[in-house]
Amino acid sequence: MSNFKILVDKQAEIDTIYQKCDDLIQSTVRPKLDAEVEQFLSLVEQHLTQQGFTIKKTSTGLIANFQEAVINVDKHSKNLEECFFINLNSYAEDQVSIVLDISPIMLPKISNQLDGYTDIIEQMTDKLKQAKSLEKACNQPTFLYKTQSNKVFHSAQQVVDYYFQ
Q1: What CA dihedral angle connects 122, 128, 131 and 137, to 10 degrees?
Q2: Please, which of 39, 43, 101, 132 could form a disulfide with 142 given CB 3.0 to 4.6 Å?
Q3: Is 80 strand, coil or helix?
Q4: Taking a C-beta distance cutoff of 8 angstroms, is the pair 21, 134 a contact?
Q5: How confident is the model at residue 53 (pLDDT cuts 50, 70, 90)?
Q6: Is the pTM of this model over 0.90?
Q7: What is the model's pLDDT at position 108?
Q8: What count of other Cβ atoms lies within 10 Å of the Cβ of residue 137?
Q9: Are 164 and 47 in contact (CB under 8 A)?
């Protein structure tokens, strides 16, 4: 029975942390993510305007025109992630996402050679580590920009320089 109590206690702790994270996401993370999105779009608009593009804002991003060139930056939202599809004349497209920076230090490390109960305990421990990593990230949210090919940037300016130099 004590083994079962350990599992119940871990589950209760995990549930409590995730509930706290849900609150933090609404009060802290989402507003900062929205501000990061606005900063990114503003930098893209400013950079392309300086290069002579005519900018039209849309509800999900912007469309930039210069002679025959059309660049479409279109946002699609996911949970704790804002994805931008950057499309040039419908011929070439890439994707960059703004994601919450969750420290990989506490991410799970699952062993393969365990008995059934030990495996369950380790899975619960890993779930708890994931919850604590998310909680830490939500308390002081910072964001990363990741491309489809997993190139990582630490600022909107780095992304603008990479795509629109």
Answers
A1: -90
A2: 101
A3: coil
A4: yes
A5: very high
A6: no
A7: 52
A8: 21
A9: yes
